[in-house]
Write a structure and sequence with these properties.
alpha/beta, DNA polymerase, domain 1, 10 helices, globular, six-stranded parallel β-sheet, 6 strands, Rossmann fold
Length: about 220
């Protein structure tokens, strides 16, 4: 029987990156952690898309500088790399372990398709409560999602002979839109209750506790 693959975005889907960025922002700028998070999120894709490809550690650093400037708060030069230092310690969501455990028992293989560097995701994987069979990073494809490069590399390497492939992600912009355009079966983990068009996803769930049932439903349809 051919392999069945679940691919995952990592930060925001499995790892609570909002908590990580907000907490780091609070350490840098006491009382402004939420402001830092909101501003960081508004700026990151812009930094990723500018000029030639840059590693994610450079994106984290430059976005931190721009967020501080926009908030008119003082950022000490040595603190610009704070997110690079804390990202290995950002926690997974509590629902990740039980969901992945159930799905592994059902015979699914797991892969990470992440806008990250190889060394950072290697450190992050130590926090994840499940092993992954494959990883595709931005560093591997010299591009950041929503570019289709992650999905195309995974498809050509692993999914071309798979009996099923479902992508699971929180980010509508980075993952749901491009997988819709590529015709890849997709589950939107809408943790934030966002109001984007749910019809672009094959299934919409509020957290990973609902993932095994959603995967089962899509598998039956497939």
């Amino acid at each position: 029987m051919a392999d069945r693959w679940l691919t995952f975005d990592c930060f925001g889907t499995l790892i609570d990156w909002r908590h990580g960025i907000r907490t780091t922002g609070e350490l840098l700028f006491p009382g402004r952690g939420q402001n830092f998070l909101d501003t960081y999120i508004a700026l990151e894709a812009e930094v990723e898309s500018e000029g030639s490809f840059k590693r994610y550690r450079a994106v984290l650093t430059e976005t931190t500088r721009r967020a501080a400037k926009r908030l008119s708060v003082e950022l000490k030069p040595d603190d610009a790399t704070a997110l690079v230092s804390t990202i290995p310690y950002w926690p997974p969501f509590a629902d990740v372990g039980p969901a992945l455990g159930d799905l592994r028992k059902q015979g699914w293989r797991f892969a990470l398709l992440t806008n990250c560097d190889r060394d950072i995701i290697a450190l992050t994987q130590r926090r994840l409560p499940a092993s992954f069979d494959a990883v595709v990073t931005a560093e591997d494809v010299s591009a950041y999602k929503p570019s289709p490069a992650h999905f195309r590399l995974f498809q050509s390497t692993f999914a071309s002979s798979a009996s099923a492939w479902i992508h699971v992600a929180q980010s509508y912009f980075h993952d749901i839109i491009p997988t819709h355009e590529l015709g890849i079966t997709r589950i939107w983990v809408n943790r934030q209750g966002e109001k984007d068009d749910p019809s672009l996803a094959d299934s919409v769930i509020g957290g990973l506790a609902e993932l095994p049932d959603a995967v089962l439903g899509l598998s039956k349809v497939g």
